[in-house]
Design brief:
Three copies of one chain form a homotrimer. The first copy, chain A, has about 475 residues and is mostly helical. Chain A has helices at about 10-30, 35-45, 55-80, 85-115, 125-145, 150-175, 185-200, 220-240, 245-275, 280-285, 290-295, 305-335, 345-365, 365-370, 370-380, 390-420, 450-465, and strands at about 30, 120-125. Chains in contact: A-B, A-C, B-C. Chains A and B meet through helix 1, strand 1, helix 2, helix 3 and helix 4 of A and helix 3, helix 8, helix 9, helix 12 and helix 15 of B. Chains A, B, C: This is Ammonium transporter AmtB-like domain-containing protein. Chains A, B, C: Homotrimer. Chains A, B, C: Belongs to the ammonium transporter (TC 2.A.49) family. Rh subfamily.
Chain lengths: ~475, ~475, ~475
């Protein structure tokens, strides 16, 4: 029986959660001093600022918009590659990101910027970027689940995903005092393992009943390429969006840009080697070429050097493409882990790798290279962290990566079991990867392109003669 | 008879109008002091500016580019959803926007920045943004007419649309001294009613002869989703592009971002409730989720508060989706108003709503919230408007909305009658929504995808055996 | 025999070149003083800079991202118009741009910013923009070769293309001291003639064996329109990305914007006149409307005046569309020059034109218009060029255009002969324009959309009854 009837559950979830957002925003969220009309005039006066261009808005808005494009067009269109699940790929991505970013502003606000006196959270452009980042964790998880879950389940994945994200981020960034501006650990490692763990719990032994739809067609691959390219092009903005003003943002862009470029070449190389006639596989090009951006998330703001960045990219292209060729099939057969988009190879492993690369680069940092004030600024070694040595910092960075993995795995397993309750409207095994389940598709004959009617007409004519 | 022969009329209009642009630009348009080589050096000296970063260019260029993307890719691709009118959707949008922005620079210049001494209009980055905005009014109108008019008619719609826009904008912004940075009134309300009025005059009783083409196919809906997402993502830039430097732009972005996010959830909810199995409709997702951006056009720069923004978005998603479900069919049946893209629900009503929300928020503004100088700056209450009270300002804002509606309706009816002259090459009723009319389509069998030939071949082979 | 087996050659080239990059970057490339952590702190101190916003990053990063989008999505998707070569169009564009930008950083670094003391090249955001520009030359050349060469050949085209580019750029910009911020000469003229010369050497007399695939389908034309629009919208950023801070960037944007708008109208006009029923051709709209951006590459930063820009755009639309209608077919028949994308009309001729327009505008520059310091800044007339008169500058600009043509033609012929060695895996004449050669295509029946199977099923059912 087709149990994908969501006429009650989806609107209920959307309304309840959106009304909750209205109330919670009313209680908690206010403009910060750089976006508040009165506050900004006072801020300028008290900080002796003469020009509006010093508003943080002008440092971060171009990067914010790039990140925004990555979240909605990048992730959204990357997931349109399935021949008959493109609406779900881009549409549900839209839904859960729009919900997630609101919930993220609250969760991150409570943990990071709740004013103890007023009890309010103040938000500005950096909060919006962080909210987008926070959604990314859940969108990554969606990649593993693509085509096998209902939008209601995705809302739950996002609710818990954002919550877990805020907690692990608090532990990693505040308690362990790690640096992770581009989120190798907090976004990609967490999101990757979170999605894999959920998918493992939701294993469907008879998924091959939908096998005919678990693949691309020519034009769906081109739509996915739009998403892939916007992710690839704007990853320098992703990693640099919240790094330090000045040389910090500047260097992060250079490092990410170089690493991504190198990754493309090794991705093409391994993809070609993996097929007996040397033919390239669009899945690799769309995904593995992005792995360098993931892996540079932590270390791009450090002085990793241009060639260091290229080496990271070089390795990521190889590892990620190998993952698509051999590890994903292995996981599915042996570990009963169905990972539709291969987030294991694009997020989980490169993210983990990026966490450890960051640890090494942090441990190797010296005052000679960074300068005294540069070292303090880059690693935030002031206040109670003033005396932390760089090798200690490196160890904490490595520990942060492990925390991200643990949160992803444990959280994912728990959420997976919640999703197994039979009330969320997920599709039957032979109805996966099919937009028919949740979308009114164009044409009466919904799974058939318009040419068919005409063909039938031709067939009839042909046979009459 | 097929009367879509535009080999004479289209080139004639293009050449005449473009030559007029050359002459009028030669007579009137000059660089402003921030883009003129000599002028900028003098400006820096006279204003004691030490850094080039103070040039308005750096405050506005990132937003300008986002607006530019919305005009050409956003509006253009949103109109590719029809199965066989995608070329016309994106192509004619391109044509009329490229013409409209030139004419807008002149019209807006004459009304807003004509130097009485030199008789020249000076332009800078803000003029380009305003020119793009001005085009938007006509592009919105195109949404109602999509598939039913010729490119020559569209050029006329744009010529008059831009002209009317500049006049109503002058009345609303200068005479009534309303604030409307994101154009809820001047752009969306005007553009929406302008298009609806034209479409009403051009009513085609036999349009169902083209019914087979008045719908989408799977991939055309994905192309439209590209347009929808770029509009959705960049709407914060649209609303903030010409607001005040500093906290003004910063706050406008936050408000628009939040409102749009909330709107997505209620759009999904109502869309699902509107179908008996709870299936979602791509038309709603592509359009209604944008209504919040429209409705925040006036008030986003005010201190509407974050939760106020979310409430506006919440309501807009509901109203707009209801509009698509029930109002558009009603308008077509009862009022003889054929609105191809449903601009009534995306622009006219949310725009009007936004105008009134702006009036309320303006009337509620206090010195306590904005600060003394903030209030003056935000509402421009200097010079002869120095003593205007906030409730008066609110009343003027409401009046401005009515002016926009009136200009749209009256102007649209007049232009509609001009378009009924039988010389503009519009398609017959059974030839609407068909690119065949104005485009050389690929393949000999133009309305049939390439697969057919192969199929016929297979059919023959099959029958031979 | 099908000789497109690239399982050895492509990975070999990718690995060898990428490893070379690692080594060369390790030896030569370092952060510049605005991206180096320590360097920036010292730079601020020594230059008395108080705000991080003065970092060049904030002047150029938004433009850089636009240029990046043009290179990867703009060029990439513009080349997806062929019905069965879209993977190759966007995919190989991705590969060669990712390689080219690394090699460009080295080549341009050696010629322009090698520190004679340390022997190092320092890079910052401007270097990244220049690297993207440098790739553009080779991507333009790819346009002429599209569908007829292997990815290995493209890597060679790029290796030599970038090398030649750096040399001619050094001659034109440094030795002749021309101004060419948007690259009419160094990018478009060079890239155009380079590609044409290669294509001429690689002439295939029997290319009509692949004729069935040398054309578009409905949706491939829409994908190409995405590329075209992103190029069109972001061309103001392309031309202004490395012009002078302040009024320089500001004015360049205005000029390019106006010129492109005018170009659209004349393109539509001529396209309609060129067909007997006045129907428009997507090839013209996608390509000729961009010619104005190419032609403004040199002069957009000068005081060409707004109406001057419009006149250039006006002419370019006409010339370029005529080129597509008459010159490309002529070149193919008479000169045995097969130019898949028509780069002759979009890059070679408008680029050359732009070079000469730039020469004229430079020669006409006066202190009255630019101001004394403006003239020096705009044309860089300091140091040993202090006493160069404007007419001399104009003559050098014209000479620079000739240098670009010469480099393109001679370099292209040489590279063409290298590509004729029979070891690069290029496709046979009947296998051109076919992704089948280098890509694993979706579905077993690779050239047939999924609908066929279903159709056959229907046919069988039909015939059984």
């Amino acid at each position: 029986a087709n149990n994908t009837y969501i006429r009650v559950s989806l609107p209920a979830v959307c309304f309840v959660w959106q009304i909750a957002m209205v109330i919670l925003f009313g209680v908690f969220i206010r403009y910060d001093e750089e976006s508040d009309e009165k506050g900004w005039h006072e801020f300028k006066r008290s900080h002796n600022i003469t020009s509006n261009i010093e508003n943080d808005f002008y440092f971060r808005y171009p990067s914010f918009q790039d990140v925004h494009v990555m979240i909605f067009v990048g992730f959204g269109f990357l997931m349109t590659f399935l021949k008959r699940y493109s609406f779900g790929g881009v549409g549900f991505n839209f839904l859960i990101a729009a919900f997630g970013l609101q919930w993220a502003l609250l969760m991150q606000g409570w943990f990071h910027s709740l004013d103890p006196v007023t009890g309010k959270i103040t938000i500005g452009i950096e909060s919006l970027i962080n909210a987008d980042f926070c959604c990314a964790g859940s969108l990554i998880a969606y990649g593993a689940l693509l085509g096998k879950v209902s939008p209601v389940q995705l809302m739950i994945v996002t609710l818990f995903g954002v919550t877990l994200f805020a907690v692990e981020e608090y532990i990693i960034l505040d308690l362990l005092h790690c640096r992770d501006a581009g989120g190798s650990m907090v976004i990609h490692t967490f999101g990757g393992y979170y999605g894999l763990a959920i998918s493992w719990v939701l294993y469907r032994p008879n998924l091959n009943l939908s096998k005919r739809l678990n693949g691309s067609v020519y034009h769906s691959d081109l739509f996915a390429m739009i998403g892939a390219l916007f992710l690839w092009m704007f990853w320098p903005s992703f990693n640099s969006a919240i790094t330090n003003h000045g040389a910090g943002q500047h260097r992060t862009v250079i490092n990410t840009y170089l690493s991504l470029a190198a990754c493309v070449l090794t991705t093409f190389a391994i993809s070609s080697m993996g097929q007996k006639k040397g033919k390239l596989d669009m899945v690799h090009i769309q995904n593995a070429s992005l792995a360098a951006g993931v892996a540079m998330g932590t270390s791009a703001e450090f002085m990793i050097t241009p060639y260091g960045s290229i080496i990271v990219g070089f390795c990521c292209g190889i590892i990620s493409t190998f993952g698509y060729l051999y590890v994903t099939p292995f996981l599915e057969k042996r570990l009963k882990l169905q990972d539709t988009c291969g987030i294991h190879n694009l997020h989980a492993v490169p993210g983990m790798l990026g966490g450890f690369v960051g640890a090494i680069v942090a441990a190797a940092a010296t005052e000679e290279v960074y300068g005294k004030e540069g070292l303090v600024e880059t690693f935030g070694l002031s206040g109670k962290f003033e005396n932390r040595s760089m090798s200690t910092q490196g160890a904490y960075q490595a520990a942060g990566t492990c925390v991200a993995i643990a949160f992803g795995l444990v959280g994912g397993v728990c959420v997976g079991f919640i999703l197994r309750f039979p009330l969320w409207g997920d599709p039957a095994d032979d109805f996966c990867f099919d937009d028919e389940a949740y979308w009114e598709l164009p044409e009466d004959e919904e799974t058939i392109p318009p040419v068919l009617e005409y063909n039938n007409h031709m067939i009839n004519k042909h046979q009459d003669t």
